[in-house]
Amino acid sequence: MPNIYDSAYNLETAIRESDEFKNLKTAYETVMNDPSAKEMFESFRDTQMELQEKQMQGLEISEEEVEKARTVVEAVQEHQDIAKLMEVEQSLNLVINDISRIITKPLEELYGSTEEEAN
Amino acid sequence: MPNIYDSAYNLETAIRESDEFKNLKTAYETVMNDPSAKEMFESFRDTQMELQEKQMQGLEISEEEVEKARTVVEAVQEHQDIAKLMEVEQSLNLVINDISRIITKPLEELYGSTEEEAN
Ligand SMILES: [Ca+2]
Ligand SMILES: [Ca+2]
């Protein structure tokens, strides 16, 4: 029987050694070592987080804020290094989401099956 | 080099075969097969989720709601099978939190290190 913690550490190593993670590391360091790219990327991140927080709290997002977000998104999409960073982040996010689905399957089956019986 | 998906499926198996998961399965089925326990447990869950949603949305929680929640919590704590279920759920949650910390470490190190340099 495999041990949970051994398996988790093996998975951590697999992530760390994956192309997806290595590509992310390279793309992230490229942006962080370029001060103007770094500032643009962080402004994008801050804008996105502010809007997400507002949405989660059910607050209205003004036309001005939507316009500001659009401007920032357009700027980062035209910046080659940042666009690359966002692309590799998304690749790794897809993998992380897959992992999350795989390891929560036992719990989903347990809670799901009894719910079905009840319906 | 270990493959990410192989490692994730190994971890899923390890979770499924763990004592924590088997204990949860037994405790959950015991409650779900007892209609009055099932109803009490689901009422507890619903109350907790409502309060959590309100908190996340920054809405005020009335004294009446706090009182209702306290009553439901007291009832489930005195019900042996439900108390057992909550206990084993918490054990498995601790393990799941550990797993989550382990496998997100590469990302945390990457994003964390550059943030530190910037300060
Ligand atoms: Ca910042
Ligand atoms: Ca229900």
Model regions low in confidence, pLDDT < 50 over at least 5 residues of chain A: none
Report the CATH topology name of chain A. YheA-like fold
Catalogue the ligands.
Answer: calcium ion
Biggest sheet overview of chain A: none
Helix percentage range of chain A? over 70%
Overall domain count of chain A: 1
Name of the CATH homologous superfamily of chain A: YheA/YmcA-like
Assembly form of the protein: homodimer
Report mean pLDDT of chain A, rounded to a whole number.
90
Report the CATH architecture of chain A.
Up-down Bundle
- State the total count of DSSP E strands of chain A: 0
What is the CATH class designation of chain A?
Answer: Mainly Alpha
Number of helices of chain A: 6
Give the amount of beta strand of chain A, in percent: under 5%
What is the 3D shape of chain A? flat
Order of helices and strands of chain A: HHHHHH
> Most extensive interface, residues per chain?
A-B, 42 and 43 residues
Separation of the first and last Cα atoms of chain A: 35 Å
Using the CA coordinates, give the radius of gyration of chain A. 20 Å
| Secondary structural class of chain A | mainly alpha
